[in-house]
């Protein structure tokens, strides 16, 4: 499949879920397009950053972005992302991909549990829009936001992903942000974290296949425009289950390929 078509599918996921760009593009770049794990991580940051920007158009239009919290959360991820980018260069490719797969599996399990809780609430009529109401601001909330942002940034830079696969669960499970707003906040943070991750790789000697990267990015950006409107038609709990299923699928593929020694 051509990079632009693969990118289109990845973009649909990012626009709909506020996540998925990095967790899909890194394995695809490594196992299907035969890039090294470290080059794939750098290319992925370009892809995810542009896709998140296009994916933001719909939530901005629908006023789903809580800008104060989104920018604060995103800014905190930057410091962690810069550190993570440097740390990733100290780890061999197989270990990088293996630890990535394990992390995906853990996050997927947490999101499955949240999906069950959300579905029960919807069935009881407790969550007619599962709300768009944010939890009240407090010192504890801001401390949790800073901690979650730092952790997300560190992993974003380390694995070369936009961080949405971790941001959305943290925002929903820890900070109690409604899923649709968490998706919008994640897209803002993904743009900032991707930029920081790229800056952290400057001067490291990594080279990118710009033809593949640009084609992939173009397709992904187009898909990102369509993903938001599609997600608006789906129940929040269904989005949560789809997100968890995506994580499980990518985790299995990544771990199987890592164990079997498939690489660029």
UniProtKB/TrEMBL annotation:
UniProt keyword Iron present: no
Keywords from the UniProt entry: Cell membrane, Membrane, Transmembrane, Transmembrane helix
InterPro entries per the UniProt record, alphabetical: TM_pro_TauE-like, TSUP/Inactive_protease-like
Bilayer topology: Multi-pass membrane protein
Membrane spanning residue stretches: 6-33, 40-60, 66-84, 96-117, 142-175, 182-204, 210-232, 239-259
Xref: Pfam families: TauE (PF01925)
Subcellular location: Cell membrane; Membrane
Principal cellular location given in the protein's record: membrane
Keyword Disulfide bond recorded: no
GO CC list: plasma membrane
Annotated family: Belongs to the 4-toluene sulfonate uptake permease (TSUP) (TC 2.A.102) family.
The protein's name: Probable membrane transporter protein
Biological source species: Propioniciclava flava
